[in-house]
Design brief:
The chain has 2 domains: 115 residues, Chitobiase, domain 2; 346 residues, Alpha-Beta Barrel (TIM Barrel). The strands form 4 sheets. An 8-stranded parallel beta barrel has the order 7-8-13-14-15-16-17-18, surrounded by 5 helices. A 6-stranded mixed sheet has the order 1-6-4-5-3-2, covered by helices on one side. Helices cover 35% and strands 18% of the residues. With 531 residues, the protein is α/β, with parallel strands linked by helices. The structure holds acetamide.
Length: 531
């Protein structure tokens, strides 16, 4: 304040300010952008509103189509026109996936560093509307704002286990829509397990003829006495369905990371092809949960089988990553196997645990030779991996810390903060039956993916974080959504927003808009104040 200003002038000035500049609205954007300046007024988006593309390249047209589809379905044409008041452009500069969004009463400008940036600008634009899910009165009012935004991490992931309980392509697409709205850019598709093999492989049809079906499913957490539901469960994705889902994801700037588990969690594959186990079998597609001792045996024939499977998988998934599991592989059968004993002698391996290192390195060489980066759960560190592998640290953060110090890239996914199969309340009686644990929204929100003990030179190897949805106890899409929301909002913010912009109270305030959006979209979620 200028102390020389006459008091009367100050009063006039104050009065003027309060008359002409009502408080600017707060924004509700999740994940919170790097910089937001709200403006006065709004842009009225109506049936006359058109969109100008600065360059009519096919990807930009497609990006607009994907974003506009729900609005078009509600009667807003959003046609492409050179004179459009919504202007989209890719300016080729700035950080990957970043964008600038300006909304004034006269128009809307979105400039993306790349196409993904434009897509994210459009996602943010949706969140400046009173509702993006219901067009009321033929228009959508967009709050004036200037936003500069870019992601903190390049890997922002959500996982879905479709092996414990199969979900069809329509649900997978719906799940991808959830991710896209919140700028999550990797979908980790957990396709194989002891309880089911979910992807068609031409060379090995029994993987889905036999491996995709189990006779029944354990009820409850399991005990000495097996209690099954008596219902056959299963399903799988045809190659055409996989291609369609991969394309659907790509249209939303989501990379699909397929997971083919090895050497453990392989009992469904062994039920189909018992010759790849160390003992003769027969095996059945598992009906209970847990960790199974029958795992792939490291025969040459097994590697030939896995390489054929992976070749078919690689053909379907254009992204850089193939996830090969590596977790929870008991060595009981390997210890008892003459073949494995001979292999150890031949390769100079002293400990049976190290055979997994030999196994994973062979697979890694194969993937690298085919232009892919291997991802595995943190157990892959135990046998020694090449620095080209990306490590998912799930058993806490130690694996991630160690891997990043060794020079491996790391995706943090510790069960303590990012396992969305855990209960959302300590009062389990009011929640749907779950595997256990307790992971409320504030714990997810508080998670910081870069461990404080890492030096800056190692911290750069933490490329992001991912939350996992294991579905032992989730049969329906509705149940999955209940476990996903609101926790996925927190994941979005901790992977996208600058750490210093996080604010839990403000986040909770903003969630009001997002839960209303879920209501309008017919998406299930756990209410913030409990069920
Ligand atoms: C895991 O939860 N077994 C990766």
């Amino acid at each position: 304040m200028n102390p020389r200003l006459p008091v009367i002038g100050l009063m006039v000035a104050t009065t003027l300010v309060s008359c002409t500049s009502p408080a600017l609205p707060e924004h509700d954007i999740v994940p919170v952008p790097r910089e937001v300046e709200m403006g006065a007024g709004s842009f009225e988006l109506g049936s006359e509103t058109t969109v100008a593309l600065d360059d009519a390249d096919a990807t930009l047209v497609r990006t607009l189509e994907v974003w506009a589809a729900p609005y078009r379905a509600q009667g807003l044409p959003l046609a492409i026109d050179e004179a459009g008041s919504i202007r989209l452009s890719v300016d080729g500069s700035g950080e990957p996936e970043s964008y600038r969004l300006d909304v004034t009463a006269n128009g809307i400008d979105i400039r993306g560093a790349d196409h993904a940036g434009v897509f994210y600008g459009l996602q943010t634009l949706s969140q400046l509307m009173a509702s993006d899910a219901e067009v009321t009165g033929g228009t959508l009012s967009v709050q004036a704002a200037s936003i500069d935004d870019a992601p903190r991490f390049r890997y922002r992931g959500m996982h879905l286990d479709v092996a414990r309980h199969f979900q069809g392509p329509d649900f997978v697409k719906r799940y991808l829509d959830h991710l896209a709205r919140y700028k999550i850019n990797h979908f980790h598709w957990h396709l194989t397990e002891d309880q089911g093999w979910r992807i068609e492989i031409d060379a090995y049809p029994r993987l889905t003829e036999v491996g995709a079906w189990r006779e029944q499913t354990q009820i409850g957490h399991g005990s000495e006495e097996f209690d099954g539901d008596g219902e056959r469960h299963g399903g799988f994705y045809t190659k055409d369905e996989v291609r369609e889902i991969v394309e659907y994801a790509a249209d939303r700037f989501i990379t699909v990371v397929p997971e083919i588990e090895m050497p453990g969690h392989a009992q469904a594959a062994l039920a189909a092809y018992p010759e790849f186990a160390c003992t003769p079998g027969p095996f059945e597609v598992a009906q209970t949960w847990g960790v199974f001792e029958d795992i792939f045996c490291p025969y040459e024939e097994t590697f030939a089988f896995l390489e054929t499977v992976l070749s078919e998988v690689i053909e379907l998934f254009p992204g850089p990553y193939v996830h090969v599991g590596g977790d929870e592989a008991p060595k009981t059968r390997w210890e008892e196997s003459d073949y494995v004993r001979d292999l150890m002698q031949r390769e100079g391996i002293n400990e049976v645990e190290q055979v997994q290192g030999y196994f994973m390195r062979r697979i890694e060489r194969f993937l690298n030779a085919n232009g892919k980066t291997m991802i595995g759960w943190d157990e892959i560190l135990e046998g020694g991996v090449a620095p080209t592998a990306t490590v998912m640290s799930w058993r806490g953060t130690i694996g991630g810390i160690e891997a990043s110090r060794r020079g491996n890239e790391v995706v943090m996914t510790p069960y303590s903060h990012l396992y969305f199969d855990y209960y959302q309340s300590e009062d389990r009686g009011t929640e749907p039956f779950a595997i256990g644990g307790f992971l409320p929204l504030d714990t997810v929100y508080a998670y910081e993916p870069v461990p404080s003990q890492l030096r800056e030179t190692d911290a750069v190897n933490i490329i992001g974080a991912q939350a996992n949805v294991w579905t032992e106890y989730m049969k329906t899409g509705e149940h999955i959504e209940y476990m996903l929301f609101p926790r996925m909002f927190a994941l979005a913010e901790l992977t996208w927003s600058p750490a210093e912009r996080k604010d839990y109270d403000d986040f909770l305030r903003r969630l009001d808009w997002h839960t209303r959006r879920l209501d309008a979209l017919g998406v299930n979620y756990r209410p913030l104040d409990g069920p």
